[in-house]
């Protein structure tokens, strides 16, 4: 699972057959204009979380039943910070 700020990608890999079994991706459309101009970059975290949910929910259930391990990587050059319940306004 690759959780980036511009897109989210998930795949299911079968280590026995060495084949990609299923995959999904979705652009996050999470950019928010920053008051710091080009020096800053803000992200709409709920949109990123929504993209993760979208991708995982689109994987076939019969494939998901066989998942034993999950690997996650994040965006490249930075960190995403958010407040607990930030999207519950």
TrEMBL record:
It comes from the Eukaryota. Gene3D superfamilies: 3.30.420.40. GO terms for biological process: glycerol metabolic process. One of its GO terms (molecular function) is sedoheptulokinase activity. Residues 1-83 form the Carbohydrate kinase FGGY N-terminal domain. Pfam families: FGGY_N (PF00370). SUPFAM superfamilies: Actin-like ATPase domain (SSF53067). Keywords: Kinase, Transferase. One of its GO terms (cellular component) is cytosol. Belongs to the FGGY kinase family. This is Bent.
């Amino acid at each position: 699972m690759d959780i980036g700020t511009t897109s989210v990608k998930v795949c299911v890999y079968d280590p026995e057959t060495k084949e990609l079994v299923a995959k999904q991706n979705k652009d996050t459309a999470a950019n928010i204009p920053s008051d710091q101009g080009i020096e800053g970059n803000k992200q709409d975290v709920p949109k990123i979380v929504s993209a993760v949910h979208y991708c995982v929910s689109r994987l076939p259930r019969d494939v998901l039943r066989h998942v034993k391990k999950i690997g996650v990587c994040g965006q490249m050059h930075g960190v995403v910070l958010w407040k607990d319940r930030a999207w519950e306004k």
